[in-house]
């Protein structure tokens, strides 16, 4: 498969692939949001993307959000945290993030809630769930999910739970990848049926450059796309 060589062309290509996957699944493309993942790419690249109408950007590190938010203070950008968030970065997240998709533990929830109360604001969060046995993946063990979501709703009123997020197993076996997405969707449906007060269990953030079409077929409402949009990442120099 050849990749178009400008950002605008890659965006158009991606949007048509998203629409085609929706078509196969009998879904309305309006149900599937695109979250561009700009980690390791500089402020100039994000500014150019924002000029094309993109507004939300996913980042893995609070440090990068801090630097980019400063460089792009004149752009109305919503920063979305998708990587492991250290508890001692809760203050920055409460100040700068529009949303955190990687909430996976109560000590982080408590720290965020306290800082959000100081800032006088609320924060949309997704709970990150571990849906594969890969040792490197962060996320909550699914068995603990119902109690975790109930505790969030009960104890941390500044956090508005909006759904679930996962990374599928990194594999060429499409059935194994689909199985991860199905697990997440199953838990979303089950928690939605519980109708926990204060919780809007709707969104499913799942699917990346290599597997977003499968994710859409399995019910994703939001795909997080980095390399298919921005190109290959260079971890050697960026974000340090
Ligand atoms: C980097 C990252 C992505 C995007 O990955 P690509 O394969 O470049 O699309 C999506 N989600 C998370 C959590 C990431 O860290």
From TrEMBL:
Under the heading InterPro entries, the entry gives: Ala_racemase_N, PLP-binding_barrel, PyrdxlP_homeostasis
Q: Which GO terms describe its molecular function?
A: pyridoxal phosphate binding
> Highest taxon of the source?
Bacteria
PTM-bearing positions, type N6-(pyridoxal phosphate)lysine: 39
Name the CDD domains for this protein: PLPDE_III_YBL036c_like
Q: Which Pfam families match?
A: Ala_racemase_N
Q: Where is the Alanine racemase N-terminal domain?
A: 14-233
Gene3D superfamilies reported for this sequence: Alanine racemase (3.20.20.10)
SUPFAM superfamilies in the record, alphabetically?
Answer: PLP-binding barrel
Instruction: Please provide the record's keywords in A-Z order.
Output: Pyridoxal phosphate
Look up keyword Ubl conjugation and say if it applies. Answer: no
Role according to the record: Pyridoxal 5'-phosphate (PLP)-binding protein, which is involved in PLP homeostasis.
Sorted alphabetically, which NCBIfam families does this protein's record hold?
YggS family pyridoxal phosphate-dependent enzyme
UniProt family annotation: Belongs to the pyridoxal phosphate-binding protein YggS/PROSC family.
Q: What is this protein called?
A: Pyridoxal phosphate homeostasis protein
Protein species of origin = Bordetella genomosp. 11
- Upper taxonomic classification of the species? Bacteria, Pseudomonadati, Pseudomonadota, Betaproteobacteria, Burkholderiales
């Amino acid at each position: 498969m050849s990749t178009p060589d400008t950002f605008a062309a890659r965006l158009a290509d991606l949007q048509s692939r998203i629409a085609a996957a929706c078509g196969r699944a009998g879904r309305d493309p309006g149900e599937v949001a695109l979250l561009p993942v700009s980690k390791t790419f500089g402020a100039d690249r994000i500014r150019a993307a924002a000029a094309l109408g993109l507004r939300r950007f996913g980042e893995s590190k609070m440090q990068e959000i801090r630097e980019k938010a400063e460089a792009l203070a004149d752009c109305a950008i919503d920063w979305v945290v998708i990587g492991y968030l250290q508890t001692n970065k809760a203050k920055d997240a409460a100040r700068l993030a529009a949303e955190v998709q990687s909430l996976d533990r109560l000590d982080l929830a408590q720290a965020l809630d306290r800082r959000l109360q100081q800032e006088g604001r609320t924060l949309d969060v997704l709970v990150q769930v571990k849906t594969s046995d890969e040792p490197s993946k962060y996320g909550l063990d699914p068995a603990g999910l119902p109690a975790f979501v109930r505790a969030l709703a009960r104890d941390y009123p500044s956090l508005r739970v909006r759904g679930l997020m996962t990374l599928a197993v990194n594999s060429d076996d499409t059935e194994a990848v689909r199985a991860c997405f199905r697990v997440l969707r199953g838990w979303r449906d089950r928690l939605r049926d519980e109708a926990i007060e204060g919780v809007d269990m709707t969104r499913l953030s799942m699917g990346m450059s290599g597997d977003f079409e499968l994710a859409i077929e399995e019910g994703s409402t939001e795909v997080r796309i980095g390399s298919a949009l921005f190109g290959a990442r260079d971890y050697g120099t960026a974000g340090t």
